[in-house]
């Protein structure tokens, strides 16, 4: 099946099969309700556009079409939905201009909203402002400060801000590169002066070595457990000095779903808490596709910290993402048509 010269996810063999069936008149053409243009890195295409997703989508009448970055976006399609995650200011501008010119197309998600979570300072601001009712637990963010340029002033700034050791340093900007996911643990504030700004310095929260990844796709949420960095004990802290580098720590982290964990560590955050958090963040961030990394302070039952928010994360690792994502796309269409006057 071709669409304005674009090749869809249906491969040639499938095309032939479809044509054969249609030519002898024993079946109707597959229903086509929704065209989704995608602009993704090859890594993302591989992890997200898996055969199972494409097959399910096709059965539901959803067609994924690869956007050609070398041609104007408006000349391609027409699309019902544009799904994108590519780095660079130029690309952001292309998508922003397209959104203004084509308000009828649902763009996932608006570039300005994505930029907001590509900065580790603004990323957590909305969580800090939330003030959710505390009936199911308290959600906070670790205390942090931004080191913009002068690393020599860090020890004084850390003391002034009252940050407790150990500390985590993370690059301020997230741009999809391996370097922007490099993390440092500092056992003393002086060692941080060796790092290259800009970065954020955050308090390390002991959390029993398990992290909760809360995936959000529209109104659906799904939480999984992942192994995380181990706790730092007081004796360890007093014995060790220096700063230690962890390249791409979260990506390397394995699933902890089937692990034999201490029940107090393994217990998932309460669903009503996660639902409220996701709903509020969806609204405040203006994003529909993201995940929230949450930890529970070790030794507490209900003190949670959000440490990271990722735009259009690795949904390929989310259980049942194929069904959830395709249903989400269809729901977008339903709400779009419901909004039309007279329909
Ligand atoms: N403040 C903290 N306290 C304790 N552990 C932390 C803290 N911040 C980060 N970590 C640990 O380091 C990991 C990586 O940190 P973070 O999630 O911020 O980085 P990232 O590169 O943005 O990850 P992702 O691949 O999810 O985008 C976390 O998954 C967690 O295991
Ligand atoms: O799903 P989690 O564990 O959160 O990890 C994701 C990161 O948060 C994303 O930043 C990665 O996507 P990009 O490589 O497109 O930034 C994303 O890459 P992927 O989609 O290729 O798996 C993941 O590494
Ligand atoms: Mg993370
Ligand atoms: Mg992240």
UniProtKB/TrEMBL annotation:
<feature type="binding site">
    <location>
        <position position="120"/>
    </location>
    <ligand>
        <name>ATP</name>
    </ligand>
</feature>
<feature type="binding site">
    <location>
        <position position="293"/>
    </location>
    <ligand>
        <name>Mg(2+) 1</name>
    </ligand>
</feature>
<dbReference type="InterPro" id="IPR041429">
    <property type="entry name" value="ITPK1_N"/>
</dbReference>
<feature type="binding site">
    <location>
        <position position="85"/>
    </location>
    <ligand>
        <name>1D-myo-inositol 1,3,4-trisphosphate</name>
    </ligand>
</feature>
<dbReference type="GO" id="GO:0005737">
    <property type="term" value="C:cytoplasm"/>
</dbReference>
<feature type="binding site">
    <location>
        <position position="170"/>
    </location>
    <ligand>
        <name>ATP</name>
    </ligand>
</feature>
<comment type="similarity">
    <text>Belongs to the ITPK1 family.</text>
</comment>
<dbReference type="InterPro" id="IPR040464">
    <property type="entry name" value="InsP(3)kin_ATP-grasp"/>
</dbReference>
<dbReference type="GO" id="GO:0052726">
    <property type="term" value="F:inositol-1,3,4-trisphosphate 5-kinase activity"/>
</dbReference>
<keyword id="KW-0808">Transferase</keyword>
<protein>
    <recommendedName>
        <fullName>Inositol-tetrakisphosphate 1-kinase</fullName>
        <ecNumber>2.7.1.134</ecNumber>
    </recommendedName>
</protein>
<dbReference type="GO" id="GO:0047325">
    <property type="term" value="F:inositol-3,4,5,6-tetrakisphosphate 1-kinase activity"/>
</dbReference>
<feature type="domain" description="Inositol-tetrakisphosphate 1-kinase N-terminal">
    <location>
        <begin position="35"/>
        <end position="114"/>
    </location>
</feature>
<feature type="binding site">
    <location>
        <position position="310"/>
    </location>
    <ligand>
        <name>1D-myo-inositol 1,3,4-trisphosphate</name>
    </ligand>
</feature>
<feature type="binding site">
    <location>
        <position position="213"/>
    </location>
    <ligand>
        <name>1D-myo-inositol 1,3,4-trisphosphate</name>
    </ligand>
</feature>
<feature type="binding site">
    <location>
        <position position="181"/>
    </location>
    <ligand>
        <name>1D-myo-inositol 1,3,4-trisphosphate</name>
    </ligand>
</feature>
<feature type="binding site">
    <location>
        <position position="308"/>
    </location>
    <ligand>
        <name>Mg(2+) 1</name>
    </ligand>
</feature>
<dbReference type="GO" id="GO:0052725">
    <property type="term" value="F:inositol-1,3,4-trisphosphate 6-kinase activity"/>
</dbReference>
<feature type="binding site">
    <location>
        <position position="44"/>
    </location>
    <ligand>
        <name>1D-myo-inositol 1,3,4-trisphosphate</name>
    </ligand>
</feature>
<dbReference type="Pfam" id="PF17927">
    <property type="entry name" value="Ins134_P3_kin_N"/>
</dbReference>
<feature type="binding site">
    <location>
        <position position="314"/>
    </location>
    <ligand>
        <name>1D-myo-inositol 1,3,4-trisphosphate</name>
    </ligand>
</feature>
<keyword id="KW-0547">Nucleotide-binding</keyword>
<feature type="binding site">
    <location>
        <position position="308"/>
    </location>
    <ligand>
        <name>Mg(2+) 2</name>
    </ligand>
</feature>
<dbReference type="Pfam" id="PF05770">
    <property type="entry name" value="Ins134_P3_kin"/>
</dbReference>
<keyword id="KW-0460">Magnesium</keyword>
<feature type="binding site">
    <location>
        <begin position="202"/>
        <end position="213"/>
    </location>
    <ligand>
        <name>ATP</name>
    </ligand>
</feature>
<comment type="function">
    <text>Kinase that can phosphorylate various inositol polyphosphate such as Ins(3,4,5,6)P4 or Ins(1,3,4)P3.</text>
</comment>
<dbReference type="GO" id="GO:0032957">
    <property type="term" value="P:inositol trisphosphate metabolic process"/>
</dbReference>
<keyword id="KW-0479">Metal-binding</keyword>
<feature type="domain" description="Inositol 1,3,4-trisphosphate 5/6-kinase ATP-grasp">
    <location>
        <begin position="137"/>
        <end position="330"/>
    </location>
</feature>
<feature type="binding site">
    <location>
        <position position="228"/>
    </location>
    <ligand>
        <name>ATP</name>
    </ligand>
</feature>
<keyword id="KW-0067">ATP-binding</keyword>
<feature type="binding site">
    <location>
        <position position="310"/>
    </location>
    <ligand>
        <name>Mg(2+) 2</name>
    </ligand>
</feature>
<dbReference type="GO" id="GO:0000287">
    <property type="term" value="F:magnesium ion binding"/>
</dbReference>
<dbReference type="InterPro" id="IPR008656">
    <property type="entry name" value="Inositol_tetrakis-P_1-kinase"/>
</dbReference>
<keyword id="KW-0418">Kinase</keyword>
<dbReference type="GO" id="GO:0052835">
    <property type="term" value="F:inositol-3,4,6-trisphosphate 1-kinase activity"/>
</dbReference>
<dbReference type="GO" id="GO:0005524">
    <property type="term" value="F:ATP binding"/>
</dbReference>
<comment type="subunit">
    <text>Monomer.</text>
</comment>
